[in-house]
Design brief:
340 residues, Tachylectin-2, Chain A, 4-stranded antiparallel sheet, 1 helix, 10% helix
Length: 340
């Protein structure tokens, strides 16, 4: 027969075991809640053959907040223009592989002329004449508009005018047009712009305009790409599209917002770049990193994709708390998963 002391020890061990189990259960529940807060949409951080570069972020640490990039493959090197928030300016960096970047330099600062107290969100083209052309966002007094500048080398820029080339004018654009993405259509001899419009903090939808000279634009009266409420991850807003031609399709890499503070990246395609957009069935392709320690724990924004002949590279903003930096995701092989 067990002594009273033995029975007491046994009961104590049971209580300690139950308490430890309860602590573990509560810790697991807290972690699950934390992960849901970090990534409220669920699902993996990548899908469909995409993977995040193991040494992300590739640009931003020590530079302050850097976001919303545009790139060119130029003479075998990568050239990046981006938004440098601490300078209120367009930043510039170069790379031989798209992964390791030079120090950031500011190449276009704000005029502080009433409509551009800060400049950001650029789109850069290099034409057959060798001239670099930049459309950029100017922001001031709770409004955004789009300006235009040119450069012989991509570093020294001259504005076409002190005034913007595109201001909010349509009801759906509200107080902001921003984040231009411009292609030149040689067959039509037209510049084609996809831009975001709506709220100032984050715009709401994606519009489309054309121009023969890059300065005077004719826009569609309604947005060409809007949120899909049937998909929770992009039910609030779709913005900041990069549109590019690849094969017989125009592809769009875009941001989808579930709410103002949480975002993921999706893909869509269209035959003409305007209508009948097909979203990738497996969207979203890139999501926030798991856990509050991830550098991109809260949101991933503003994708920019290039095909290097064997691999797709996709640069994007990652945010955790108030820190925003640039990372890369990779996709080996040309097939993006649409089928057909």
């Amino acid at each position: 027969m067990k002594s009273a002391r033995t029975r007491t020890r046994t009961r104590t061990r049971i209580r300690l075991g139950v308490a430890l189990l309860l602590v573990l259960v509560l810790a697991a529940a807290a972690l699950a809640v934390r992960q849901r807060l970090d990534d409220p949409f669920g699902g993996p951080a990548t899908c469909c053959g995409w993977s995040k570069y193991a040494h992300n972020p590739v640009l931003g640490p020590g530079e302050g907040v850097i976001f919303d990039v545009t790139l060119l493959r130029d003479g075998g090197d990568y050239r990046m223009w981006n938004s440098w928030r601490t300078k209120g300016s367009i930043g510039y960096a170069t790379s031989t592989d798209g992964l390791h970047w030079s120090r950031e330099t500011a190449v276009l600062g704000p005029l502080r002329s009433g409509w551009e107290d800060q400049v950001n969100r650029p789109s850069v083209l290099r034409g057959p004449d060798g001239l670099y052309r930049m459309w950029y966002t100017g922001q001031a007094n709770g409004h955004s508009a789009i300006g235009y500048a040119t450069s012989p080398d991509g570093v020294t820029w001259t504005r076409a005018s002190d005034a913007p080339v595109l201001r909010p004018a349509l009801a759906w654009e509200k107080v902001a047009v921003m984040a231009p993405n411009v292609l030149y259509d040689a067959d039509q001899r037209l510049y084609r712009m996809w831009y975001s419009g709506g709220e100032q903090f984050e715009p709401d939808a994606i519009g489309y305009a054309t121009s023969s000279d890059g300065i005077h634009w004719v826009r569609r009266p309604a947005p060409i790409f809007v949120p899909d409420p049937s998909h929770a991850w992009e039910q609030a807003k779709v913005t900041a599209a990069q549109v590019f031609r690849h094969g017989d399709w125009y592809y769009m890499a875009y941001i989808g917002f579930s709410d103002r503070d949480h975002a993921r990246i999706g893909l869509a395609r269209s035959r003409d770049g305007i209508s009948s957009w097909q979203r990738l069935p497996a969207n979203p392709i890139i999501g926030p990193g798991a856990g509050s320690a991830a550098w991109d724990c809260d949101a991933v924004y503003k994708p920019y994709m290039l095909w290097d002949g064997t691999t797709w590279l996709l640069w994007y903003n990652g945010r955790c708390g108030g820190v925003e930096q640039i990372g890369v995701a990779l996709h080996p092989g040309e097939d993006l998963g649409f089928g057909g």
